């Protein structure tokens, strides 16, 4: 089987937007520097597979994320496809300046739902982090940019334990009130469960302007995504091949794999606009360049090994 048998489940969205984070969140934790030409081809392959949102890079200081030091060069190499959005992450006003200089049309900012992670990742308190975001969002909007907001540690923090739902809602609403068009709720260390997901979305008053970003540390990413879909969410972050993590949280493992998500969505009769075979081919190609197999279960089942051999599953067929 190369595609799942589709059985439509009542109450799910007709279509889901997969917000692809592989080129940024996926590659940022790679220890070996990936050549900028490989990154540009990665982005091109993702667009060819049907992606309409590809978070391409980040204007973070190279000291903190050396892998993304080539952000400006990469943007110069990417051939933009009409109808495809290419947002970039910006950590502060200096990052925004660089984004504006390079003609970026959409940015994302990254906040914390917990005190400890805000101090460790942003060098700010939970309350004072907004002083950093407010001028970035305001200036971006003044310049006609769309602004997305991420909130990390929405379900649990490795230093503080479970994150209070009300605390996440307070942080998220402040970002939405600033003018962010979308809020991505991040399970940075992958400890969330479906009931927790449903409760958090409900605490926001529903799914309007919400997206979800799950990591698969405890094998809950797909279950949590399904819970979010049933609650009405229509935007799901994922990383091709399941690559990535968080460089500031040791317990954060890989992102939800785009291929695994698409297999589930297509099996539920939910449209994505994505070609699964092309995604698997891209992940296999990328795995060969990273020197290790993709952690995606769908890629393992349908793809070739990074050395060029065919998976046992395909041989038996």
From TrEMBL:
The keyword Lyase applies. Residues 16-280 form the Pyruvate carboxyltransferase domain. InterPro entries: Aldolase_TIM, HMGL, PYR_CT. GO terms for molecular function: hydroxymethylglutaryl-CoA lyase activity; metal ion binding. Keywords: Lyase, Metal-binding. Its EC number is 4.1.3.4. GO terms for biological process: ketone body biosynthetic process; L-leucine catabolic process. Pfam families: HMGL-like. Belongs to the HMG-CoA lyase family. NCBIfam families: PRK05692.1. This is Hydroxymethylglutaryl-CoA lyase.
């Amino acid at each position: 089987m190369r595609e799942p048998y589709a059985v439509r489940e009542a109450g799910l969205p007709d279509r889901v937007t997969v917000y692809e984070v592989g080129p940024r969140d996926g590659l940022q934790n790679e220890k070996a520097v990936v050549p900028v030409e490989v990154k540009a081809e990665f982005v091109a392959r993702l667009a060819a597979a049907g992606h309409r949102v590809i978070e391409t890079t980040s204007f973070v200081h190279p000291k903190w994320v050396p892998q993304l030091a080539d952000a400006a060069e990469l943007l110069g190499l990417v051939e933009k496809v009409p109808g495809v959005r290419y947002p970039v992450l910006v950590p502060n006003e200096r990052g925004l300046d660089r984004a504006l200089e390079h003609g970026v049309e959409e940015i994302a900012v990254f906040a914390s739902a917990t005190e400890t992670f805000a101090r460790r990742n942003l060098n700010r308190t939970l309350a004072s982090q907004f002083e950093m975001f407010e001028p970035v969002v305001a200036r971006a909007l003044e310049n006609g940019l769309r602004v997305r907001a991420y909130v990390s540690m929405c379900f649990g923090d490795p230093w503080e334990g479970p994150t209070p739902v009300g605390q996440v809602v307070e942080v998220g609403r402040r970002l939405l009130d600033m003018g962010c068009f979308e809020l991505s709720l991040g399970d940075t260390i992958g400890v969330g469960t479906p009931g927790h997901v449903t409760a958090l979305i409900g605490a926001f008053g529903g799914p309007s302007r919400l997206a979800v970003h799950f990591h698969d540390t405890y094998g809950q990413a797909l279950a949590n995504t399904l819970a979010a879909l049933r609650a009405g969410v229509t935007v799901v972050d994922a990383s091709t091949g399941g690559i990535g993590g968080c460089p500031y949280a040791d317990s954060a493992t890989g992102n939800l794999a785009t291929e695994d998500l698409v297999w589930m969505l297509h099996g539920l009769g939910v449209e994505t606009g994505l070609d699964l075979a092309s995604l698997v081919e891209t992940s296999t190609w990328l795995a060969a360049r990273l020197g290790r197999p993709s952690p995606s279960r769908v890629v393992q089942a349908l793809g070739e090994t990074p050395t060029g051999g065919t998976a046992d599953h395909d041989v038996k067929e």
